[in-house]
Design a protein that fits this description.
With about 325 residues, the chain is mostly helical. Helix content is about 55%, strand content about 5%. The protein has a 3-stranded parallel sheet. α9 runs antiparallel to α12. The protein is globular and about 70 Å long. The two termini are about 25 Å apart.
Length: about 325
């Protein structure tokens, strides 16, 4: 808790193109959380380099992601929006926490196993200790709540274990964070394989709706979305494709799945896919327009980057200095 307010921390990588699933499952919920909490939303560029990146592309996408946060409704005067690499305390705390994390814990991380299988030529130490840096991200700001998807739940549990282990030795240093799991929009599935989550790294471009897709592209992808031969718009496990489209439509329009079923009762899949596509395009259009305006206003965005990095660093340094003192590092002469 900072200044009497509960703290929320979360972040996203600027690799690949964010999807409507990232927006509905994360960024849209962040905008709501910012009304009630002190929030730190980070572009986690240090995490990104566990996989080789083109430097110019990473820099461009990092800036695009930061402007997307703002375009989607996050106020940089109210929430702290910043680049992870601009706050050295993230890496400094991660080293200390590495010394309180066990090899066996990291070896059990499912994401490490999955990414190692995908990048057999680059199984680096950063990929292995990725969850420790994530723990440092969270604990630096004494976060009370961390919005996470199911794929990050294991990492959050490790973060909690590390915090409790450190506190058991040195006293009440870290807030032990809780996970925040949104009830709606948390898991949007692939349009081409609705049994698997929509992914920004999917090799099939028709499987995902990217936040940069124009209206024509969005409508085309929804027309091609995999459904079934039943011809009935019903929210059930037996129709995963239709269930996924109902999830998207219901979240965007503030309706329950049952209300969506009633709205489209007796209508065909074509009509329904068109309605879902139009709903998505109506939401993304204004965000895309605002992001373009921000990217064109370089001086304004530079000011946000500078000011928010300073704000994040001030809070992060408070925690880091306390941790350094607890473990016995000499005080810095300033």
């Amino acid at each position: 808790m900072l200044n009497g307010e509960k703290v929320v921390f979360s972040g996203a990588q600027a690799t690949g193109n964010l999807t409507i699933g990232n927006y509905l499952g994360a960024i849209r919920n962040w905008v709501e959380l910012a009304n009630d909490y002190q929030c730190f939303f980070c572009v986690v560029d240090e995490h990104s380099i566990t996989v080789r990146q083109d430097p110019a592309t990473l820099r461009r996408r990092s800036r695009e992601l930061l402007t997307l946060y703002i375009a989607a409704g996050l106020d940089p005067e109210k929430s702290c929006l910043y680049f992870q690499s601009h706050v050295p305390a993230h890496a400094e705390l991660a080293w200390i926490l590495n010394c309180f994390t066990y090899m066996g814990e990291l070896q059990r991380m499912t994401q490490f196993k999955d990414k190692s299988a995908k990048h057999e030529d680059n199984i680096n130490a950063g990929l292995f200790t990725y969850p420790v840096l994530m723990a440092a991200d969270i604990l630096l700001y004494q976060a009370d709540l961390v919005p996470v998807g199911q794929d990050q739940k294991q990492h959050l549990e490790l973060c909690r274990d590390i915090a409790q282990r450190f506190n058991a030795v040195y006293g009440d240093v870290f807030t032990v964070p809780e996970g925040y799991y949104p009830k709606t929009g948390a898991r949007i599935m692939s349009l081409q394989d609705p049994l698997h989550k929509m992914s920004k790294s999917d090799e099939n471009p028709n499987a995902s709706i990217y936040l940069t897709d124009d209206t024509d592209t969005i409508m085309r992808k929804f027309r091609r979305a995999v459904t079934d031969s039943e011809g009935v718009i019903r929210y059930c496990e037996e129709q995963p494709g239709i269930r996924n489209l109902i999830d998207i439509y219901s979240v965007l329009n503030g309706k329950t799945p049952q209300e969506v079923e009633a709205e489209f009762a007796g209508r065909g899949y074509g009509d329904f896919k068109t309605a879902v596509g139009e709903s998505v395009a109506a939401v993304l259009g204004p965000i895309q327009k605002e992001q373009k305006r921000l990217l064109d206003d370089r001086a304004y965005v530079d000011g946000i980057i500078r000011d928010n990095a300073q704000k994040a660093a001030w809070y992060a340094e408070k925690t880091l200095r306390k941790v350094q003192k607890k473990v016995g590092f000499p005080e810095r002469v300033r």
